[in-house]
């Protein structure tokens, strides 16, 4: 049996620039999921380069289920005092409760500083220091790995307690449906994201500007596939796509609901079918419709949104 040898890949060989390359890469759903899995919480709704006074934070996001604000600061070099100061400038300006500092190498004095801060702040503030590495075997694509260097006191216990909270019967049904969808998605069309007990399931299109959102609407008894553009403040992305409506709908083969959502930051482009996951034997049909529709959406929209 021939086995390959792991080789570490220089980070700058993959991501030349922290803002334009690394932050954009990390904000994609499938990559943010790796970070979520590492620290044990679900990170959603990322925004890159959020303005804080005269500065800009690399990524801000939210914790799924609680809405707690998350600040992520990236540094593809050894940790330094400048970035340590930025954590608290940005964190205070954004009222962040979870702060994540990702570095190439964590200096011992900064590990000690983060541990000290976690010990001397209340439980509302949670700070992580994480190293990122990249590895490959032979000519394979590089694979990232996050290593937690410092974390809040009793974090594992707090995450475990949160995970043990009783879920409603409907929440459990949602999770089982998304698990069933993953089982039917034998070609990993949707990326096999972990099933969660919630009404939506996000799918990447390869851009940080938009993603697909598959939803189960209990109230209206509909199942939907959306192109979701979370930070389309000036509606430029939506309007550019709307100008191509005839071509897009012809390529998808379905009429679409174009939701400009005046007064809100986000915009959506949606198609839906009637359906409920309660008391039904139609899970195969519903899940396959979502898989196939998402595949077409991704093919059509990924080349129009970069």
Compact description:
The chain is built from ten helices and twelve strands.
Overall description:
- 36% of the residues lie in helices and 30% in strands.
- The protein has 10 helices and 12 strands.
- The longest helix has 20 residues, at 283-302.
- Strands 1, 2, 3, 4, 5, 6 and 7 form a 7-stranded mixed beta sheet that branches. Strands 8-9-10-12-11 form a 5-stranded antiparallel beta sheet, covered by helices on one side.
- Helix 7 (169-184) crosses helix 10.
- The protein is globular and about 55 Å long.
- It has helices at residues 11-14, 18-26, 29-39, 81-94, 108-120, 155-163, 169-184, 236-242, 245-252, 283-302, and strands spanning 6-8, 43-52, 55-63, 69-78, 98-105, 126-137, 143-150, 200-204, 211-217, 222-229, 257-259, 267-274.
- The model has no long low-confidence stretch (mean pLDDT 87).
- Helix 4 links the parallel strand 4 and strand 5 (98-105).
- The chain folds into 2 domains: 6-163, Trna Endonuclease, Chain: A, domain 1 (3-Layer(aba) Sandwich); 169-302, 2-Layer Sandwich (Yope Regulator, Chain: A).
- It is α+β, with helices and mostly antiparallel strands.
H/E element string? EHHHEEEHEHEEHHEEEHHEEH
User: What general form does the structure show?
Assistant: globular
So what's the CATH class of the largest domain? Alpha Beta
Number of strand elements: 12
**Overall average pLDDT:** 87
Helix-and-strand structural type: alpha+beta
Helix content: 25-40%
The biggest beta sheet reads:
7 strands, mixed
Strand content: 25-35%
Given the structure, what is the number of helices?
A: 10
**Reported CATH architecture of the largest domain:** 3-Layer(aba) Sandwich
List the domain count as a whole number: 2
Show unreliable segments: none
Compute the CA-based radius of gyration: 21 Å
- Remind me, CATH topology of the largest domain? Trna Endonuclease, Chain: A, domain 1
CA(first)-CA(last) distance: 42 Å
């Amino acid at each position: 049996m021939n086995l390959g040898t792991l080789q570490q890949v220089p980070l700058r060989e993959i991501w030349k620039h922290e803002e334009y390359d690394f932050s954009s890469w990390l904000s994609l759903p499938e990559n943010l999921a790796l970070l979520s899995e590492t620290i044990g919480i679900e990170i959603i709704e990322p925004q890159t380069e959020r303005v804080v006074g005269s500065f800009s934070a690399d990524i801000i996001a939210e914790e799924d289920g609680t809405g707690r604000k998350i600040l992520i600061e990236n540094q593809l070099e050894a940790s330094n005092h400048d970035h340590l100061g930025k954590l608290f400038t940005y964190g205070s300006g954004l009222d962040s409760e979870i702060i994540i500092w990702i570095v190439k190498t964590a200096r011992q004095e900064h590990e000690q500083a983060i541990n000290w801060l976690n010990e001397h702040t209340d439980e509302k503030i949670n700070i992580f220091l994480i190293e990122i590495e990249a590895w490959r075997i032979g000519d394979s694509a590089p694979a990232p790995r996050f290593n937690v260097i410092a974390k809040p006191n009793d974090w594992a216990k707090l995450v475990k307690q949160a995970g043990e909270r009783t879920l409603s019967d409907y929440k459990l049904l949602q999770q089982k449906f998304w698990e069933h969808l993953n089982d039917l998605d034998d070609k990993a069309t949707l990326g096999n994201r972990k099933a969660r007990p919630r009404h939506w399931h996000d799918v990447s299109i390869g851009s940080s500007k938009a993603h697909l959102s598959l939803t189960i609407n209990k109230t209206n008894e509909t199942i939907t596939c959306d192109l979701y553009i979370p930070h389309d403040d000036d509606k430029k992305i939506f309007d550019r796509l709307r100008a191509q409506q005839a071509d897009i709908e012809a390529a998808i083969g379905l009429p679409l609901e174009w939701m400009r959502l005046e007064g809100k930051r986000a915009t959506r482009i949606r198609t839906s079918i009637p359906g409920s996951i309660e008391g039904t034997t139609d899970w195969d049909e519903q899940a396959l419709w979502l898989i196939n529709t998402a595949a077409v959406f991704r093919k059509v929209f990924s080349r129009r949104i970069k």
